Amino acid sequence: MTLRDILNKLLRRQQSSATTAKERLQLVLAHDRSDLSPELLDQMRKEILEVVAKYVEIDLEEGAVSLETEDRMTALVANLPIKRVPSVNSTEKTK
Amino acid sequence: MAPKTRIILICSGKGGVGKTTLTANLGIALAKQGMKTAVLDADFGLRNLDLLLGLENRIVYTAQEVLEEACRLEQALVKHKQEPNLALLPAGNPRMLEWLKPDDMKRIVNLLSAQFDYVLIDCPAGVEDGFKNAVSATKEAIVITTPEVSAVRDADRVIGLLNTHGIEPVQLVLNRVRPRMIASQEMLSVDDVTDILALPLLGLVLEDEQVIVSTNRGEPLTLNKSTSPAARCYSNIARRLEGEDIPLIDPAKEGKGLGDKFRRLMQTKIF
Lengths: 95, 271
Ligand SMILES: Nc1ncnc2c1ncn2[C@@H]1O[C@H](COP(=O)(O)OP(=O)(O)OP(=O)(O)O)[C@@H](O)[C@H]1O
Ligand SMILES: [Mg+2]
Hints:
The complex is a heterodimer of chains A (95) and B (271). Chain A has 95 residues and is α+β, with helices and mostly antiparallel strands. Chain A has one domain (3-94). Chain A contains 4 helices and 4 strands; from the N terminus they run αααββββα. Chain A has a two-stranded antiparallel sheet with strand order 1-4. In chain A, strands 2-3 form a two-stranded antiparallel sheet. In chain A, a hairpin with a 2-residue loop joins β2 (64-70) and β3 (73-79). With 271 residues, chain B is of the alpha/beta class. Chain B has a single domain (10-267), classed as 3-Layer(aba) Sandwich (Rossmann fold), CATH 3.40.50.300. Chain B has 14 helices and 8 strands. In chain B, β3 and β4 form a beta hairpin. The chains are: A alpha+beta (95), B alpha/beta (271). Chain A binds chain B through residues 1-4, 6-7, 16-19, 21-22, 24-26, 28-29, 32-33, 70-72, and chain B through 148-149, 152-153, 156-157, 159-160, 163, 182, 184-189, 192, 195-198, 265-271.
């Protein structure tokens, strides 16, 4: 973040157009590079959440599965905050 | 075939970002450095390289007649009068696009490699057949882009395709850089673009009105001792290709007024 960005935030102005451009590019290239259509990504997201939900209770509102890209490597990043671990596990732990 | 010949494809994906201008200026600059250089116009649909080099009136035969064996390579090559180390192999009739195959491009480039130190291929825009034919004949590539979202996105696509074809090395040239706009963060910076595309930067070219003046005349900026910003950039790129360690022009230092200093301060990264 740059001095200008901070000033813009304080003054509730828009961020600089270069910063917006970079963010937009990083997002669109993550998709371009993975060759995954938004529909497929969405379907995958749903299935991943279903699988994870079998084992732990997750916050569906906060959960995010997204593509990120760096150095021409695209990664699927899942950020799934766990609300509660089901009792099976917790009893094991207390033993 | 001289194995040391460097065959370099100059490509971009998006049209109009400066491929032909770079090819012409680099060709002349390398020739000046004593390198026997051939520039090949692979943009058969919309050829322009002849015009930028001021050679449009001297074309007799083209790559087409060479491929049809209607003439020898030497007859088709147009030597630059002022810089005889440089020769152009002109693009043929646009209808060549209908039958040209990757093997045809390879044949032409092989013929050129036997005689030249450098073969620069001016690629057509897009990622269709014209691009694929040109890629099949090259060893290395320069991807040129401008600091605009659409050009960078298309460059990324091209880089992906070059990788799948095993082209190596692939280097980046960032064209039409405007230091003032970068300083006020209204244009992607050089670092932004190299971050996003993850390619080694061969050089940047500043936005420069003299580029237009030079194309009007058919005399690339590198031909006469121009000291205009873009001229310096182009010759730096040529020298880096030859392995010289030339520091990058710092766009931030191009602006010198108090306003520019303030803009730079505003751009300072805090976290
Ligand atoms: N550094 C620069 N400063 C100012 N103008 C420039 C610069 N580089 C290129 N241009 C201008 O941009 C236009 C497009 O350049 P050029 O023909 O080299 O692009 P191209 O990538 O070969 O296009 P095409 O995809 O149509 O083949 C020209 O009018 C040229 O003069
Ligand atoms: Mg062109």
